[in-house]
């Protein structure tokens, strides 16, 4: 089955090759956390769904219940919330080979406090609520996988909170560049400024003061 | 075996009764999350250790590796960190029937970013690193318990972060009173102010503006 790639219009791509690559990426990630055998993988991977989003598309909106976990295979997502003045605050970027959702909304089926937007044309693998809970029970180490992913998610939030209090804007900027290499080339600067919780003017000053290689 | 209670000097208490009450509280909490049978409980509960701390005692210091999870049976703990000016910021209060540790430090064996201090004479049950990891493997639903506790911990951090951005100081104050009833009578006001991320003057104004019942 041949399909036109949504992003690369001058190139015809094999949909199944795309899917295989995505699934292989997820399997590698999962296998780095738990032991998963071929039989389990065959059963589990049949439930994944591939989806593509256009640049700027909103894929989760504050107030909706998050029904999916998105695994980013290609592209970049921005996770943000609205502050008390309804100003967008960028919380996180989900780059290739990482997960994105409002985890609390997804797990508790409560209205999402975050929105998610594609920063580039983005290809994700979708995991449904059923699939995740089926995985907890059905995989031999499913609950362990759930625990490790919850812990990883927790470390992310804990460090984000501490950074805001304990690091200077320059330190947060350096930390961001380590976490998300090339993010400055991929995302408009006002989103970066809102991620760092500083003004765009302050961000420009930091960027201009960096030594050029 | 009769022991003098560390906190109530005019009363002789049975150490084992104390321990039994603490263990029953933990068992009730665990049983609300997973199915645990008598055999599992007998094996697991034998590893708990009871410890008492005096008011104001520091029980975990920034920079140490957190070797234990504390389950508060009686009393109150304050979890705090130091901001970039070395000022103490209160992050959380662990009241009766809740857990406290630097979870990341405990799980990853890295230096703790938080300190923990007893706000009152406090009685805790201690779980060691070995015990927690043994529980993940040894209990039929140990990994599920680990997952649910990691998720709960994550919700706490996620909401704390969002509150700082999305709620007014008054809203944060009301939220705190729901989470920690009577906290105002138990903790000096400057710790409350630092929990709410406002000045002590601002906190006094909020308290004085509350309707008196």
From TrEMBL, chains A, B:
One of its GO terms (molecular function) is kinase activity. Keywords: Kinase, Transferase. Signal peptide: none annotated. It comes from the Bacteria. Residues 51-128 form the Cyclic nucleotide-binding domain. This is cAMP-binding domain of CRP or a regulatory subunit of cAMP-dependent protein kinases.
